[in-house]
Write a structure and sequence with these properties.
Blueprint (H helix, E strand, L loop, with lengths): L3 H9 L5 H35 L3 H27 L10 H16 L5 H32 L2 H36 L44 E6 L2 E5 L34
Antiparallel strand pairs: 1-2
Organism: Fibrella aquatilis
Protein name: Ferritin-like domain-containing protein
Length: 274
Amino acid sequence: MATIGKQIADFFAGGSTTDNDEGLRGLFVSELQGMYYAEKALVDNMPNMADAATTDEVRQAFQHHLEETRGQVTRLERIFDSIGVSADDKTCNAIDGLADDADEVISSTESGSLTRDAGLIIAAQKVEHHEIAAYGSLHALAQLLGYTEAAQLIEQSLQEEKNTDKKLTQLAESFVNERAKAEGKNDQNYSSPNRLNYYEDDNNGRSTVGSESTSGDRSGYAAGANYQSGSAMDNTTSYSGSGSTDREPMQQAGFSPGREGSSGNATSGGTLGV
């Protein structure tokens, strides 16, 4: 077998020795096994995140991606089959650590708060960025090794992860972060959105939401700024409040997108974070 130095030299020279291909194939299979472990672990962990979410929008986002993740597990099994390898997994320490981070968010935030939703989105986007990096690398290796079918299947999962990351950014920017910020003001007229007495401040032009409001009607959340959350009716989501406009909901998942967001960029007025 060629030395590691020879394999690296052949790789960067554009050469493709049999030994080098075998080394890369072993790396490809190993990374594939790590992703197989990761996706199955997420299928187990994501329902906890959905159950812990405060708003229907965030809950639906996790539920929607849970179904995608189940499909990605099946897709990975097809990839193993396409290269003639039995589906198997190996421990992925990275995903285990990210799952622990999500559990920490749940245990350290108040139930029914928008701060919890903001934290859950951060945790979810950490996972998405890990998966984007992993699938992107697998796609490059599959193309290099001539695994055409595997590359096509990996590309499908990669695009799903990118889309999910983008939707989470839009969801955070549309209302979650603003309301989490309002919670942090400790305004005596504000209570967590799982309660029914929301903002009442006539001097600032805000009106009281009646006690008949429920968690299913997101107009009950007050942000202290220009937002009122939309409530989904007839497959459309309406927003009211100065500076807000009607927006179309994210297809299937109940997202309420704001401006076009970049990956991992949903911090209010900032360029980094959720």
